[in-house]
Design a protein that fits this description.
With 157 residues, this protein is α+β, with helices and mostly antiparallel strands. A hairpin with a 5-residue loop joins strand 7 and strand 8.
């Protein structure tokens, strides 16, 4: 798998497939083009010829340069469980670690059980939130606004 820096020209291809990759959930509003223009030195893509297999959008915190944040990671559903997500995270960890980062954070929706499972499998820890779900998952109620509950993760690298 060849991992490359993402660029602005990748935006239309990714955004046109994003909602389908998330099972019909509307995710496009969460991924504006600015990430492809202003954070491409820490955002990466894996493609097979012209087909995008996966991507990661991340950046180093402007408030604490020892931390990085992954805003989005996506893997084409036809290529899940092939190690693409893990490869993207490992590459991201390596790049930001070389820039002095020692911790990476990210989050997901409480309803996204596959994302929660994936992130813990990759080695992320679930941060202690306000509440516990019925499944025992710690989460932050209304983290991103009313009804927008989130599971927060961190990992030391």
């Amino acid at each position: 798998m060849k991992i490359e820096q993402i660029n602005s020209s990748d935006y239309n291809n990714i955004i046109s497939n994003l909602n389908e990759w998330w099972g019909g959930r509307n995710m496009t509003d969460m991924l504006p083009k600015l990430f492809f223009k202003h954070f491409n030195n820490t955002s990466f893509i894996i493609r097979n010829h012209e087909s995008i297999l996966g991507f990661i959008i991340g950046f180093i915190s402007q408030s604490d340069n020892r931390k990085a944040y992954v805003h989005f990671i996506g893997v084409n559903p036809k290529h899940r469980n092939e190690g693409i997500g893990r490869a993207l995270y490992e590459h991201f960890f390596q790049v930001v670690k070389e820039k002095g980062v020692s911790e990476v954070e990210c989050l997901t929706s409480l309803i996204n059980k596959s994302s929660i499972k994936f992130h813990t499998k990759v080695g992320f820890n679930i941060q202690t939130g306000d509440l516990l779900s019925e499944e025992g998952i710690s989460y932050f109620k209304d983290y991103d606004g009313k009804g927008e509950d989130r599971v927060l993760f961190n990992i030391k690298i």
